[in-house]
Specification:
This protein is mostly beta strands and 199 residues long. Helices cover 0% and strands 57% of the residues.
Length: 199
């Protein structure tokens, strides 16, 4: 039976708030895993076992990462796990607010050129301020635009069961409490310098 999709466009963003930290883009990508294999000719790499990806405040965790570098130097990564996770701090004009985006799914696809994360199966996207949940979206598939802080969620139906997109949006209130971003130390890392891209 053909799966029917229910599509919803939602904006998870606070007033006067930009997207991800601009400084993250200039940072090198560090990847840690239990095993690595790469092919310089095809510009591909496979990381397996306790995979960690860090770039500034961006963090991704999963069981396996398939990474490919396009001819123009952009990276496309497919991270899988139970569950694969992503988080990144966002720019906020209020220095007292530590704002983060969190995502989890069975599969995460990171497209550096488009600056998007695609969440596939058991997808969940949340936004927190100082550790407090503010917004949440769940669905079968979610595409998150990191640069513009926009997301598209899809719910489907299979086996006679209809699946819907669910969103929770908290009331906007001024949060005067201070917060700090959590950090994770790498066990060991492979460092990739920022790509030299061809326009």
């Amino acid at each position: 039976m053909k799966i029917k999709l229910i599509t919803a466009l939602l904006l998870i963003t606070a007033a006067a708030t930009a997207g991800a930290l601009q400084s993250d883009n200039s940072k090198p990508i560090e990847i840690a895993a239990d095993h690595f294999s790469g092919d310089q000719v095809s510009q591909t790499a496979v990381y397996t076992g306790r995979v960690e990806v860090h770039q500034g405040t961006l963090e991704m965790h999963g069981d396996r990462l398939d990474l490919q570098i396009t001819p123009k130097g952009y990276r496309v990564g497919v991270l899988t796990g139970k569950l694969a996770t992503f988080k990144q701090q966002r720019d906020n004009p209020n220095p007292k607010i530590s704002e983060w985006m969190h995502a989890e799914a069975d599969k995460l696809i990171y497209n550096e050129k488009k600056d998007t994360i695609t969440l596939i199966n058991n997808a969940r996207l949340t936004r927190t301020e100082n550790g407090v949940l503010k917004d949440e979206a769940t669905g079968q598939t979610i595409v998150y635009d990191i640069r513009n802080a926009r997301s598209v969620a899809e719910g489907g139906s299979a086996g006679g069961e209809r699946r819907r997109v669910t969103t929770v949006i908290a009331p906007r209130k001024q949060d005067n409490s201070s917060g700090s971003a959590d950090t994770t130390k790498l066990r060991s890392s492979t460092t990739l310098a920022p790509a030299n891209r061809t326009k």
